Structures are given as structure tokens and as C-alpha cells.
Amino acid sequence: MANIIVLGSGFGALTTVRELRRQNVEADITVISPRDHLHYLPSTIWLPAGLRRGDKLKIPLADFFDSHRVHFIKASVVGLEDGGRTVVTDQGHYRNDHLVIAAGGRFIKKLPGIENALIPCDGIAVGEDYARRLESMDGGTIAFGFGSNPNEQSAVRGGPMFEFLFITDTLLRKQGRRDKFKLVFFNPSQKPGQRLGDKAVEKLLEEMKKRSIETHLGHKMVRFESDKVVTEGGEFAADLILFMPGLTGPAWLAAADLPLSPGGMIQADEKCRVPGRDGVWVVGDAGSYPGPDWLPKQAHQADLQALATARNIAAVLRGKTPDHNFKPELICIVDTLDKGILIYRSAKRNIMLPGSRLFHWMKRAFENHYLRAFR
Predict the structure, then answer these.
(1) Cα separation, 19 vs 40, whole angstroms
(2) Core-most of 18, 126, 144, 319, by most CB within 10 Å?
(3) CA angle at 157 for the pair 154 and 162, rounded to the nearest 5°
(4) Which are the contacts of 220, defined by CB distance < 8 A and separation ≥ 6?
(5) Which of 330, 337, 327, 331 is nearest to 366 (CA)?
(6) Which CATH superfamily is domain 3-105+249-317 in?
(7) Is 217 left (phi over 0), alpha (psi -120 to 50) or beta?
(8) pTM, whole model, 2 decimals?
(9) With contact defined as beta carbons under 8 Å apart, do 183 and 142 qualify?
(10) Which pLDDT score is estimated for 154?
């Protein structure tokens, strides 16, 4: 019987497992990850407002693994051998016939003074820390920004920063404290969030202006200090900094002998195969894929890549040629706590619908729907 190893316990990894079983793949499936919980990071945006608690966003996966006949190994990957046929971990070596790398990306923390900034998508604990700090502040300046991988501009995750920005503004207004705070959004681009589409960027910048959020755009970042943000176009004071760096691949890729992109991600084709490495596949943020320049780094895209990967592995195991390409698609609801802005992009269309309470509730309903399979 074939042995499939899936690295990771996030969106792409779990969707791969689900789809393999839906495709009636009877192979042995092993998941290797340092944690046996799904951390639902999209909902950390609601932690400051008390709409969610951190412990409720950590979903135990034991029942999911049991129902999908998965062998779970709690371990950290340190490298690969034999062209990917052997996974090297801190708990031993594991052989496979197919390897799915869904281990996620890694934030580039090289900017001087990065330790002075909170990186929201670094984990649930960071969102909880921000909630505590915001509650304790009597006023001041809060800076929100994001960057990209200088060697691979597509390796960026900016959506959550727009949400933290707008949700903070709405929350402070609800609390009657907004007049005591200055909110500043900064980005090295004049048009931040370009992959969302021109209309979306215009709408987001208009929303900032309407909310009296200051902007500092078009200047490369130089460093963070404990009380300021420094760019090539000047500096400004900040009592609290939230920043999302660009992404690169996992650190263990240095010991994996896989083809890498200029930005340090694993190269993959439109079927999520790693070129020159038979039976090695990549899903989600760890990979660099062909496609449009707006191809997102988000959970939905990872799920679409996972579906293609699982179907292609099923085809190979049946002696057929894999023929499933992943679908490039961006779906994003930029939440503002009381409303949501819907953004959709595919090869044929780019849609932006203005803020609506319906979209806010749709985002909350989707969380419940998505997590039902794991709860």
C-alpha cells in the first residue's frame, strides 16, 4: 500500500487529507507537524473586540485524524533526503511514496528593529497581545503596515492588516476613544494591496480617508524603533506598531535539495508538482506557482491547490496521468467589525462590493461552516 506523508496541520494540509479520502484513496496517510491543533488565524482580527477568544480558535485535530485514518506524528521537519522520499525530523526519519509539503511560509524578519513590531499572523498569542495592549492604552499613535519579499513581490499577505486597521478604528469609535488615538497606515507602495485590483485599492484608501486614518505611502522601510517607524521618506512616531513582513519558505528548505524560487519558496507547476522531484507536491504558502501576478497567499488559494494535489495523487495511484490544474482565485472579505467589503478576483473578472453588514455576517458564518469538519 502506498504511503503518503503530508507536512503541516493548516488549511492546505487538512484539505489535502480530506480530498484524498473523498477520492477513495486507501493509502496510508501520515501527517507530520509540530502541533496537533488547527489554528484558525483569520478570526484573530476579532480578538481585540472580544468577538472571539484565543482558546476557541485552536481546534483539536485528534477526532479529524481518527475519522480520516491518519497517523499523526508530532515533530518538526529539519530536512529531506533521497529527492524527497525521506523526511528528516527531530523525532526520526520517515519514508514516503508521495510527499505533500503544506508546511506554510515563514515571515522575513530581517528589517532592523522588527522585534519592536507585532506580527499578527505569527500566531493567536500575538492577536491576544495586541488586544491587551490596545485595551490598556489611554491614547497615542498606532501604526499598521505590511511589506513583501524583495525577491518575490507576490509573497505578501496584506489583507489582515487592512482588517486590523479598520476594526481598531471601529472599536475605538464604539468605545468613545477614537479622538485620543492617531492611526497611521504605511506601505512602501503608493497603491498597497494591488493584487486585490485597482478598484479595491481605491476603495480601501478612500475608506482610510473617510475614517481620518493617516497614510505614509511610497517609501521603503528602513527600521523600526520602540517609538517610531523610519522610512526612506521620513519617520513618524508610533506607540504601537503592527507589521506583516513578506514571506519566504520554511527554514528547513536549506537542507532539502529542492528547486527554489528567487524568493526562497519551492518551485511548483500548475498541478502543484515540484519539477524534477517525482512524487513531491507543494500546497499553499511554501510554494511558488505559475499564474497571474495577483495570485494570492491566502487560505482559500491553499485549499484550491490542495484539491488539485489530492486529485492528481489519486490519478497517479490509479495509473493515470494527473490532469488537474489548481484554480487561481482570490476571495476576500475585508472586515471592519460592523461591515465587510467583498473582493473577488479570477482570470475573468475582478469584483469589489462596498461595505455591508451582510458580508460581515457572511464571514462569521463561513468560519463556523469551515471549522465544522474539524470540530
Answers:
(1) 20
(2) 144
(3) 130
(4) 188, 231, 232, 233
(5) 331
(6) FAD/NAD(P)-binding domain (3.50.50.60)
(7) beta
(8) 0.96
(9) yes
(10) 83
